[in-house]
Amino acid sequence: MILNDIKDVFGPNIGIDGRNLTICFLSLNRANLSIRLLDSIKQHLVNFEGEVLIADNGSVAAEIDQIKNYLKTFPYRWRILEFDQNYGVAGGRNRAFAEVRTGWVMSLDNDIFFTRNSLAQIQTDLALLGCHFMSLPLLNPDQKTLFSYGANLQSVIQNGNVRLNINPILSGLPTKAYDRKLSDGSQSPFLSTFLFGGASVLKLETFHKLGAYDDNIFIGFEDINFSLCLFREGYKIGTTREQFLVHDHPKAETHIDGDYERARFSRQTLYESARYLERKTGYCFWGDEVENWIRENERKQGWSDGDKIVEMSNRGPERYARPRIALLTDTSDWAFANISHQLDHYLGNRYEFKIIPLIDLAEIDKVRWLKTNCTGYFVEGGGSAFGMALLATEGYDIVHVFWREFLSLIDTPLLADFRARFIDGRIVSTSVYDHLWIEPDSIRQKEKIFNKIISAYYVSPSKLRHIYEAIEAYPDPAAVLADGVDLILFKPANLKRFEGIAGRKINIGWVGHSDWASTIEDFKGVNTLLKPSLEQLQAEGLPLQAKFADRKEAFIPHERMPDYYAGIDVLICASKIEGTPNPVLEAMACGVPVISIDVGLAPELFGEKQRPFMLAERSIDCLKDAMRRLVAQPSLFAELSAENLVSIRNWNWRDQAEKFVPYFETLLQKKRLVTGENRTKLCMLPFYYTKHRNRR
């Protein structure tokens, strides 16, 4: 895809002379480092036609003046951005990249400098690999050994936690050993899964498309977080073979420099970044490598108080002050993950939650499995990661598996050896949000899960309680726990659009994954119900147009969904089965009218004016009738919008999360009955109650 740029006389991507490239770096005091980098550009990048962009993150005036004085004789185009404060690495890069005027950016830390001009080779390597992101190798100050030469994301188990870390490639090797190691002709650029943000080239359009760096990370871990984003979205990361950059971070010589270094390598700041990412992704980030890296930098800087800083990785007493609950989700960015984050947000002061996204973890494990020539077991769809999750959650008070189908893997060869240690006797919980597997054959297949593996389960909505209470082979649900909606995130916007709706096309919205369980049938109703209805009404002359948020076609991040709802006029829910459904909650919170099948929580959510738009039957004719009625009365859009904003107030996640507390406490009591107050001891919990015993 990069080769499409080849029509340009100066070649693809960055241009042979860098005319489509901006070299960008952050500065924060230590002007001597920035000047050294600028001087190396001046000396080695002869005939450079791009631009140099310096983003100052709040240096003192004297330090900025040094850089400005040097730039007076700088031969190439340059700009300097002076921020009003220190926005950190992620925030600083985001603000700098927003000012870039070329299609590509070379992002460098200012403790790096050039030794030669390799722009032509970078251009070739980008075109050869066809990637939008590339890491640049770094030499150590001796220029004889490698500081870094590409890296991969790697998941490991450390201290019982699933950690995501960086596995470097060839770092520390002498350059001659590197040449011998690659003398078989493998010096070509290669693909990896980690992007060194401080020494990289990236395509600006794609960077912004992916949402940029996470501004919530002040400093530390921004690169691993962005690399994980690239991995999940399927983007390639290349590494060039060229060794033309030197990384040299000298010891601070002045008081100002020392303050900068202490801010950069602050344990507390790095720890807070790690904890934020742990809550966001479900992986652990703080570990031995981080501690060793911090200690090494403290040693280099000659700080005598390094040993006095609190060891943040040792969370001993606090770690067990609250009951520990592991929440095993399918992915990190869909419905179950959203529930998990809401529980952590509102109940985190009472329980220590750990969110583990199985499918995302499995994708990283799959890469490693493929690299070992498919040695051992690997199960698609998160199954391979289930064993890792069980290992990582040993000692947790409760392990809640949202997607109960993962529990079916326990009887497979993959987890046969794990069961005695990691399943038997543990408090395992699950949930039911759908109407799948309630036929007699399916019930027989899953009877073991409900009677011997889990300690309890809950359902949503209340319809499912009646269904599962009627299944003789299963124990009764322990609770009905409905979803809520984040009323801080999902709120009304652009409601004036309903005032002039009679004179324009009406945007018909739908949210979800149209391909969900499509091998069985069209449960979501998009292809067999919604689209045919819409096409027939359009043929009749109704001014309707589809505006779907179908994850099968494109993914919209959760935090951007309010913008989507602000652009539709009515949300359609055509599902045959639903637990909630969450899009209905979110749409109502944004003041959007809804037309829905009688599924999930819809009957409990709808007010007096909305209820006539709950379909009497799931059919094309019924859906068309509801859409006609709404379009025929333009004033109804604003009326339904206002009613929904009132109806949704009772479904705030703040209140819904509290309803999980009795459920968790019931599970904890089961554990205490057999373990006392020792929350780390694993022992057998006989949970073989029959349906009839439950009813006595």
TrEMBL record:
InterPro entries: Glyco_trans_2-like, Nucleotide-diphossugar_trans. One of its GO terms (molecular function) is glycosyltransferase activity. Signal peptide: none annotated. Coiled coil: none annotated. Pfam families: Glyco_trans_1_4, Glycos_transf_2. The keyword Transferase applies. Residues 29-122 form the Glycosyltransferase 2-like domain. The keyword Glycosyltransferase applies. Keywords: Glycosyltransferase, Transferase. Belongs to the glycosyltransferase 2 family. This is Glycosyltransferase involved in cell wall bisynthesis.
